[in-house]
Write a structure and sequence with these properties.
200 residues; mainly alpha
């Protein structure tokens, strides 16, 4: 077995294992850690196929958004954060294992050009070719309608999230400017005439 094939099966096995653990674990902290590991494994496989843009986009977008996902899970499940902080050291072994696996994957992928790990059968382009430019051209020419549909779906999701969080009537003390324009002084100010009182 070639070393490149070994790296692929190694990353694929970690990806399958991490994906299964994401959906089977009950602890959201452990699930988020396994999700990070799954994203790193998938980006490593893409780098083997020399799809660097997709791999970097996966790490920057999804791994960066994992912490937001974790925060949403904590907020929606109403998890006791004090109890989680007390058990910080119990997460250290699992976190260390995930961190070591991520470092090992990054070392294998980044050192792939020296060890012949990168896929050589992928058709190579000329020197001025850019993956980003090719993806952008395909996105806005052949796949423009799915791209626009995805943007509409995201917009509907944003509006739905805002609508779900607004519960009840808004208790605002702001006054409408149109009502302020038509206010008259006699409606707001009343002058009283009172006889003077003398102290004996």
């Amino acid at each position: 077995m070639e070393f490149r094939t070994f790296v692929f099966y190694f990353l694929a096995a970690i990806l399958v294992f991490a994906s299964l653990r994401v959906v089977t674990l009950r602890n959201p902290v452990h699930a988020a850690l396994h999700l990070v590991l799954a994203f790193f494994s998938a980006s490593g496989i893409w780098i083997l196929l020399q799809a660097e843009f997709l791999a970097i986009a996966l790490i920057l977008v999804y791994v960066g958004a994992v912490m937001v996902l974790f925060l949403f899970v904590v907020m929606l499940l109403d998890i006791n954060l004090d109890r989680l902080r007390e058990g910080f050291w119990s997460y250290l072994p699992l976190g260390s294992i995930v961190a070591l696996l991520v470092v090992a994957e990054m070392g294998l992928v980044l050192g792939g050009m020296y060890w012949g790990v990168l896929e050589s059968d992928v058709p190579q382009a000329e020197a001025g070719y850019s993956n980003v430019q090719a993806v952008g051209r395909l996105l806005f020419t052949e796949y423009v309608y799915p791209f626009e549909l995805a943007s509409v779906v995201l917009l509907v999701g944003i509006v739905a999230a805002a609508a779900l969080t607004l519960r009840g009537k808004r208790k605002s003390k702001s006054v409408s400017p149109s009502q302020q324009v038509f206010v008259k002084a006699k409606d707001r100010v009343r002058i009283l005439q009172m006889p003077a009182e003398k102290n004996d």
